[in-house]
């Protein structure tokens, strides 16, 4: 029996991938692709429809029409996708069962979330991102804490006093953070004050802060510093410019370069 037939989470992840690629696909086609019975595929599609990922029709399913905020997130998720996937694979090795994690929102975080949704690790994860919480909620090994607050439509993430107050009550092992821009002068930077404040508080309440930064982020200086260089313990990236590498070395920041994983 294949691992996908034994693992409904892995099978449903594959279903989502196939439907996203094809737009519309029949139950018969999905049975052939995943080597599963029609009854199994129909149960999986019903679960994915309930979670809001697909729309079922007669004999198959299609991609659910998305709202403008979700469309913007989907576009960002697909940019630099191989770099983000490489960063995710390198980051997974830093997480152990029993960890309490902070995860902010951002398209660089999403491949990691998809990997964590399939893991057997027992984790407690606090995040302001509604889409991240929804994906992780499918894994019974993961306890998800969705930070309350004011929901920003462009990111589907919360911020403000209520979210920050919840962060202050949690003692995390790791803060896994993405950003809008990065430099050795300003550290991890953000376009919105709410995002900068969330990242800053997560970093302060975690034993270790890990930045997930792909190459394009080094070319852009965002408006507000959230996590200064002095607060970063480890940086995971797909490609590190020489000038940035020198600055990180001087700051004693561990660098995990995942470039070889993209090939």
UniProtKB/TrEMBL annotation:
SUPFAM superfamilies assigned: NagB/RpiA/CoA transferase-like (SSF100950), Winged helix' DNA-binding domain (SSF46785)
Transmembrane portions of the chain: none
Gene Ontology molecular function: any one: DNA binding
Record-linked InterPro entries: Carb_Metab_HTH_regulators, DeoR-like_C, DeoR_HTH, NagB/RpiA_transferase-like, Tscrpt_reg_HTH_DeoR_CS, WH-like_DNA-bd_sf, WH_DNA-bd_sf
Residue stretches making up the HTH deoR-type domain: 8-63
Keywords carried by this UniProt record: DNA-binding, Repressor, Transcription, Transcription regulation
UniProt name for this protein: DeoR/GlpR family DNA-binding transcription regulator
């Amino acid at each position: 029996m294949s691992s996908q037939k034994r693992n409904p989470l892995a099978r449903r992840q594959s279903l989502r991938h196939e439907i996203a690629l094809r737009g519309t696909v029949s139950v018969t086609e999905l049975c052939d692709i995943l080597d599963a019975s029609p009854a199994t595929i129909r149960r999986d599609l019903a679960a994915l429809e309930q979670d809001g990922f697909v729309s079922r029709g007669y004999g198959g399913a299609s991609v659910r029409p998305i709202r403008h905020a979700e469309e913007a997130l989907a576009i960002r998720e697909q940019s630099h996708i191989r770099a983000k996937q490489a960063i995710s694979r390198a980051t997974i090795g830093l997480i152990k069962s029993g960890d309490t994690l902070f995860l902010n929102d951002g398209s660089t975080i999403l491949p990691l979330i998809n990997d964590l949704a399939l893991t057997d690790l027992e984790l407690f994860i606090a995040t302001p991102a509604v889409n991240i919480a929804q994906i992780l909620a499918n894994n019974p090994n993961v306890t998800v804490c969705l930070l309350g607050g004011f929901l920003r439509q462009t990111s589907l993430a919360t911020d403000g006093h209520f979210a920050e107050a919840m962060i202050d009550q949690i003692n995390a092992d790791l803060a896994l953070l993405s950003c809008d821009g990065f430099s050795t002068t300003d550290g991890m930077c953000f376009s919105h004050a709410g995002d900068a404040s969330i990242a800053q508080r997560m970093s302060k309440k975690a034993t270790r802060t890990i930045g997930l930064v792909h190459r394009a982020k080094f070319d852009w200086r965002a408006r507000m510093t959230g996590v200064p260089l002095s607060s970063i313990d480890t940086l995971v990236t797909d490609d590190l410019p020489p000038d940035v590498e020198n600055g990180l070395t001087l700051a004693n920041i561990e660098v995990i370069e995942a470039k070889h994983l993209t090939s």
